[in-house]
Amino acid sequence: MLLNELAQISLFEKLDADELSGLSTIVRRRSFPADTVVFFEGDQSDSLYAIVTGATKVYTTEDDGSEKVLATVGPGEIFGEYSLIDGQPRSAAVATLEPTEVLCISHMDFRRFVTSAPEVLWKVLESLTARMRRQNNEITELSFRDVPYRLLRVLVRLTEKHGKSNPDGLVIALSLTPATLAGMVGSNVERVSRLMHRFQGDGLVRPLEGSRLLVPDFVALKRALEFETDWS
Ligand code: CMP
């Protein structure tokens, strides 16, 4: 069970069965209820977390007290890798968005383990670097796009990552206020509210209680993104 779960984590995708088995000896399993802080920005904790089920948000708190969501993290993905590697305080806070089960590995245990299995460190670094390249490409590409495109792109990504089927379409069961979405696309609340109203009028999204969203037709949402590409 644990080996299968570890094999699903993108950071460990290059490890062979023996390496995964070695890694499993330093992994701890933890469960968090929904809306629970895993750690705060500036905390001294240094474990890596890999999500088995559930979802979290990575966020910072601005001077005016508002929250800026940097990313959401879903099954197979990780967070907390910076402090795992360098032991520095947390660069951002992380909280669960739904009940979440994680596998965690502490800095000291990981260090000890890779000292005896250096090949694992290289494979993990390769996966981390591949992820960094993908993120850089995305940042570069998005920097040339306007706000409607960036917002549609965020909605497509959130649906892919967190969308759950129900009879009416795919529900993104996260609290997605205009302020949260504005933080994710790098725009202001007014602009994002106006655009969400437009997307709602176009039938691309439907608001549900608790600031959750329904995507009635995911194909139409992706098509809208392609259309936006032509005009941005
Ligand atoms: P760490 O600094 O240990 O704890 C906070 C985590 O949030 C960090 O590791 C990364 O895993 C994650 N993180 C920090 N900044 C970003 C960002 N801009 N986008 C996505 N994830 C981030």
Kindly describe this structure.
Strand 4 and strand 5 form a beta hairpin. Strands 1-8-3-6 form a four-stranded antiparallel β-sheet. A four-stranded antiparallel β-sheet has the order 2-7-4-5. The protein has 232 residues and is of the alpha+beta class. The protein has helices at residues 2-7, 17-24, 81-86, 107-116, 118-143, 147-162, 178-185, 189-201, 218-231; strands at residues 28-32, 37-39, 48-53, 56-61, 67-73, 78-79, 93-96, 100-105, 163-166, 169-172, 206-208, 212-215. The longest helix is centred in the middle third of the chain and has 26 residues, at 118-143. It has two domains: 2-141, Jelly Rolls; 145-231, Winged helix-like DNA-binding domain superfamily/Winged helix DNA-binding domain (Arc Repressor Mutant, subunit A). The protein is globular, with a radius of gyration of 19 Å. Residues 58, 70-71, 79-83, 90-92, 94 line the site of adenosine-3',5'-cyclic-monophosphate.
